[in-house]
Design brief:
It contains twelve helices and 13 strands. By secondary structure, it is an alpha/beta fold. It folds into two domains: 31-130 and 252-282, Response regulator (Rossmann fold, 3-Layer(aba) Sandwich); 134-248 and 283-310, Response regulator (Rossmann fold, 3-Layer(aba) Sandwich), CATH 3.40.50. Strand 3, helix 4 and strand 4 (107-112) form a beta-alpha-beta unit.
Length: 311
Amino acid sequence: MSRYPISFNRTSLGLIFWFAGLILQPAFASSAGVAVIKSQDLLPYDQAVQGFRSLAAQKVTEYNMKGEVGEGLKIVEEIKRQKPAAVLAVGSKAAALAKENLPEIPLVYCVVIDPEKYGLRAGNVTGIALEIPVGAQLKAFKTVVPGLKRVGVVYDPDKTSGLIRVAYEEAHRLGLELVAVEVSSEKELPRTIRNLLPNIQGLWMIPDSTVMTTESFQLILLMTLEKNIPFMAFSNNFVKAGALLALSPDYFMIGRQSSLLLDQIVRKGMTDRGKMIYPDTARLTINIKTAKILGLEIPEEVLKTADVVFQ
């Protein structure tokens, strides 16, 4: 029997949990805290940082490269002096800067398109890709357009062939037929889209820089509306401009996910080399006006699941 018996009333339990919290708090919740490097002032970057801060229990020191490599190198020197437990890089410039200049500090990146392009699959680096899994995108398209069977996509094989390989597998799993057509320049788009549309029931846009520009979006939008073909984009801005739907990243939630990921990495005292994960959540945006133009009746239960509905 203990010499000092304890009565576990609410007060003593509270003290126990308080003390346990001091012991079990995140490993990086120290005076060093965590450094956040933002590539520049852009709304998606700001939203991701806000999301990160919403879950961060540790001290956060935020730096802004302002889009300049010279400014970034100054930030690197300051971070080396401060010696934070970890770095969050928001945007591709910040991620590349931290990866090259701060190899000794665990690095988590987010809001980066095509992480492989910046060598982010190696070293003391992990992060969240700025893309929604292909299967989730195609499933959303099929849900909004229930009769969808044949989905067309235009791509540059030098840039997005890997994504298309995955898309074939996911389309088959969902009972869809993917009709993928290659282009090597934007000049090929008008003829390619014109020939593709009669053979499909929906057009899916992917973030391929050869295919997607402001000019090409307007062309694709007009051609799909003319042929009554549902058009799925990858950004809610495109839906606002007239595309039928998009499943796009939620930057605030990506920031929160980054905070949890960074916490997990520092608690372990290690990282999985080159690990890349996908966003946990996405925002479904639907344009009702476009649906009416297409003569498409979107189920009410589907509309209720949308994050944004443009009337």
